[in-house]
Write a structure and sequence with these properties.
Layout (H helix, E strand, L loop, with lengths): L8 H13 L3 E5 L5 E6 L2 E7 L4 H14 L9 H19 L1
Parallel strand pairs: 1-3
Antiparallel strand pairs: 2-3
Length: about 100
């Protein structure tokens, strides 16, 4: 059974919920950037280009997730499982 990530609005919402549970604030802004994450005044904030479509937003979040230190114990049980599946899929992609 493949757990391939689907680029749907539902997946995007689940990733956003995961990051919110992990203590991050998400903002969609316009500007001359592709995507990014930053910490502003001790606040965990992720900024994504507002003109990205759903797939672009998911790809940006997945790239950012690889760089973040997520404390899994802070996540709900369902989000822990989802986070684990994202990490497994990311590891598969690196092997290709």
């Amino acid at each position: 059974m493949s757990s391939k990530i689907r680029f749907t609005k539902t997946t995007l919402e689940k990733i956003e919920q995961l990051l919110i549970e992990a203590g991050y604030t998400i903002r969609y802004e316009k500007g001359n950037f592709q995507s990014g994450s930053c910490v502003l005044e001790n606040k965990k904030m992720i900024i994504i280009n507002r003109f990205f479509e759903t797939e672009g937003r998911i790809v940006a979040f997945l790239d950012i997730l690889q760089e973040l230190m997520i404390v899994q114990e802070k996540l709900s049980d369902s989000m822990q499982g989802f986070y684990h599946s994202l990490k497994v899929e990311a590891e598969k992609e690196e092997l290709v």
